[in-house]
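Lab notebook, bench 4. The sequencing result for the construct came back, and we need a structural model before the next group meeting so we can plan mutations. Quick request posted to the team channel:

Model the 3D structure of this chain.
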Amino acid sequence: MANKKVKKKKQIKKINTKTVIKKERRSFGEYVSTHKSLFVMGGMALFLLIGLLAAYSYVIANYTVTTVYVEGNVHYTNEEIIDMVMEGRYGNNSLLLSIKYKDKSIVGVPFVEKMDVSVMDPHTIKIEVYEKALAGYVEYLERYMYFDKDGIVVESSLEKTAGVPMVTGLVFDHVVLYEPLPVENPEIFSSILSITQLVNKYSLSIDRIYFGRDGSLMLYFDDVKVALGIGENLDEKIMKLQYMLPELRGKSGTLRMENYTEETKNISFETDQIIGE
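Done. Here's the predicted structure in token form:
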């Protein structure tokens, strides 16, 4: 019985040795397999990184904007518009710009309804600016309140905009952004727009428009005031005015055109009296 027990113990010991050897072989195989997988994954990651770097270099080298066309801007200069559109580190990359502004307009810019950006080729883009139609502005609480053809206040600014006249003589007690100016006669805004369009049509630089309580209209050009009456024959009067203003440069007074027509030619100039003369 004793001999049998000894044999059994020896047999168990042999079985344990083989199991350990098998486990060691399996562990080594797993070790090799794991390192091989890591090597493959590392190679793939390196290959992917090289590919990304190559793609990045290609995009940077071949999609750099060198020419920009800007259309429709009046309030802002070309440089200001370009800075707004091509902002950021890669703002001069046409591929990224095409993705950024695809089917999307730029909004929220003061005095601008929207801006559209189109990529014409890898090195050229076009920016189309659609500015708000401004008829004039009034001063209120030390700010310039700009309104459109319907008298709706569309912008509030501390700066004057070239080409948009100041309007005086309107009576109102408050101003609310994006609401109409609360004047007694809202039809006056169509007259303001007509005047603004006419002076722009004939390339005149107007400083101010004044409306009297009787509906009379006066335009200010430096030291020259132009009385146009109640708004009749405006196109004829302002067309004639473009030829007369250069002759009045340096003078101070009132050009009376209330009764001017192409038939009557009734115009006079009243020189301002200098105090002390």
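The mean pLDDT is 82.
Will bring this to the meeting.
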